[in-house]
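Exercise 7b. Backbone tokens:
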């Protein structure tokens, strides 16, 4: 009589997942504290970036005032400070999924994570919590340095909660593009060089969406670039974010309109990105490409 051994995969309970998350985040904190020189130079780099835009604002303020007069006092430095803070989160939403897939694949962890009780979703969730928490800390330091050292005219608006909602919606909207980008790694086997979707969105957002200068500038010189900027969720999120933070606007007609546009991006691109990302993982699992050989 032959015996058959069944393999039963153990799934973690919610409490067990919390324990794993705590251990992973504690490990990441210890690792980050270990590399003090790297952290020091990252803070120095942040200070240099803020100083660069502060003095640049002194130079270009008269020319940009007409374009940013709808935001608070029309000062350039608070305008760009909010753009840099927003860019930190939007950059993560676009690149995080691809970075996780790429790093785990090239380190030969991807198959191990898939077959472990923790599972890929839990691993991704823990990574996202850690990255967004550290980024939030970075943004807080951005604001503190900008306000107390460079004198940025920023105060906490009464509608601060709405700014958080706009940021959350922006992250969800941009995550759709991030998931599509990450799906290309496994779905289209784009494992080397530049991933074109994330590159195109990141480049377009950095230049066109209003991170460091308003997109309205293009109306006088290159109108087509202005209309391309309207194809990016970053443009609407930045406008709403600045109106809330600098004007203390609530659900004004403009802010409401920008929020509705972000929701439209979420409805279209987040399910599409999720579907493509899932298909990419399924294809890699089916064809044995979760692991790197050689």
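Sequence design result:
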């Amino acid at each position: 009589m032959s015996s058959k051994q069944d393999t039963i995969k153990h799934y973690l309970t919610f409490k067990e997942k919390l324990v794993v998350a705590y251990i992973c985040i504690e490990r990441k904190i210890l690792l980050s504290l270990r590399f003090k020189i790297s952290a020091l130079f990252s803070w120095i780099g942040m200070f240099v970036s803020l100083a660069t835009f502060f003095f640049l604002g002194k130079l270009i303020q008269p020319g940009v005032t007409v374009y940013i007069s709808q935001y608070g006092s029309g000062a350039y430095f608070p305008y760009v400070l909010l753009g840099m803070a927003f860019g930190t989160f939007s950059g993560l939403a676009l690149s995080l999924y691809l970075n996780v897939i790429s790093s785990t694949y090239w380190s030969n962890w991807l198959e191990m994570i898939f077959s472990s009780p923790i599972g890929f979703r839990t691993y991704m969730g823990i990574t996202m919590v850690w990255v967004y928490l550290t980024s939030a800390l970075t943004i807080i330091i951005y604001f503190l340095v900008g306000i107390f050292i460079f004198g940025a005219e920023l105060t906490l608006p009464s509608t601060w909660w709405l700014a958080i909602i706009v940021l959350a919606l922006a992250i969800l909207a941009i995550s759709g593009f991030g998931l599509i980008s990450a799906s290309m790694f496994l779905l289209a086997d784009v494992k080397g060089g530049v991933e074109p979707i994330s590159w195109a969105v990141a480049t377009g957002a950095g230049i066109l969406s209003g991170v460091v200068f308003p997109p309205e500038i293009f109306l006088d010189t290159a109108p087509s670039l202005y209309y391309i900027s309207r194809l990016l969720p970053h443009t609407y999120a930045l406008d709403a974010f600045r109106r809330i933070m600098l004007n203390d606007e609530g659900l004004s007609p403009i802010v409401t309109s920008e929020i509705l546009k972000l929701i439209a991006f979420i409805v279209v691109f987040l399910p599409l990105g999720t579907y493509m990302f899932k298909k990419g993982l399924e294809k890699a699992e089916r064809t044995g490409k979760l692991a790197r050989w050689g």
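Instructor comment: The chain is about 75% helix and 0% strand. Residues 1-8 have pLDDT under 50 and may be disordered.
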